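Objective 1b of the project was to move from sequence-level analysis to a structural picture of ligand recognition. The entry below was assembled by the postdoctoral researcher (A.K.) and checked by the PI before modelling. It contains the amino acid sequence of the target and the SMILES of the bound compound, magnesium ion.
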Amino acid sequence: MNIYDNKAVLKFLIVIVAIALAGLSLWYTNVLVNNLAQREQRLIDLYAKGLKTLVSENTSDNLSFLFNEIIETNDFIPVILTDDKRQIINTKNIYINPDWDVQKKDKFFKSQLFELQNSHAPIKLEIAPGIVNYIYYGDSKLLNQLKYYPYIQLGVIALFAFLTYLLFSYTRNAEQNRVWAGMAKETAHQLGTPISSLMAWVELFKSDVLLKDHFAIPELEKDIKRLDTVTARFSNIGSKPLLKEEIIEDVIQESVSYLQLRISNRVKISMHSELTPQTTVMINKPLFEWVIENLCKNAVDAMAGSGKLDIFLQQDNLKRILIDVQDTGKGIAKNKIKEVFRPGFTTKKRGWGLGLTLAKRIIESYHKGQIFVKTSEIDKGTTFRMVL
Ligand SMILES: Nc1ncnc2c1ncn2[C@@H]1O[C@H](COP(=O)(O)OP(=O)(O)OP(=O)(O)O)[C@@H](O)[C@H]1O
Ligand SMILES: [Mg+2]
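Corresponding predicted holo structure:
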């Protein structure tokens, strides 16, 4: 299994397993909580019965021994005994600060009574005909802790997992960036030497009386210029590229003219601008041209050699420049639209699936802009939009 290609499936599996584990843990603690609650209930019932017996029979030593036993065994369930007017007679397992004054203690007991009443209905205790007492009781500390424990546990684990994920994805991105930038810079660097020497050779030819008018010299110069552009692209993407004010229409026009000569003449590229003439945008020219080239090449590929490629330029009311590259090609399937910017995603035999990844990186990381598929319809065409 190729882990990279099945990343979505893998993520899905991990999430499912995590949810299952969390569910299992919650379920199991719930079982424990229920068991414990039942036990506590039985104990309270016993307690009530004990008290009832105690008050209805004549107090004998035996009984008071039993009472003590019962009361002593309950050293964890908070209990308040009141008369029928809710006046507190006795309490057990409700801890107060001995330094408090009477008023404060009273207030505290009242609030405790209210809490206990909310957690369980009180047990009615008919001591004598007409005389009724009530036992208010709550859950033991242990039961309460156990109820919340799994949530705290899962919360801590989830937080930890999340932080680890962030850390790893951060270091992974940093690593990728370094490899990517390093390769680009190295390529630019290595191309530099042969290009300068090529330039020197051309100068030499031009100074030769016999060769200087040779038709190949301008062609050679054009190719050297192109190599220079390529080097500039690599060197710019490998470092923090400088942005400069450029007349956006001219930059795009230049790329389009270059491309038009090199693609099938059954594809017509046209530009439609609604911008005020000479509108400038802060861009890095070599990189921006690279994006335009990638988008146009993809469009030409999608049209299989014949169709219309339109580039629209407009400005929105936030003063942002919108550039739409619209083709009449085969379109992108709906479920693939999100995928096209992913490195390695290609539907072409000779594709690397890097063109759009690069475009996204250039537009979003280096120009702080946006690039996305605006619309795409199978067999009708696709429009990519850039916002700068
Ligand atoms: N205008 C378009 N119309 C239809 N499909 C497109 C269009 N642009 C991109 N795609 C789809 O997105 C995929 C990825 O494009 P991308 O430019 O990233 O890689 P590629 O063109 O396949 O290879 P390369 O790295 O050589 O550019 C393409 O293979 C194609 O399926
Ligand atoms: Mg491409």
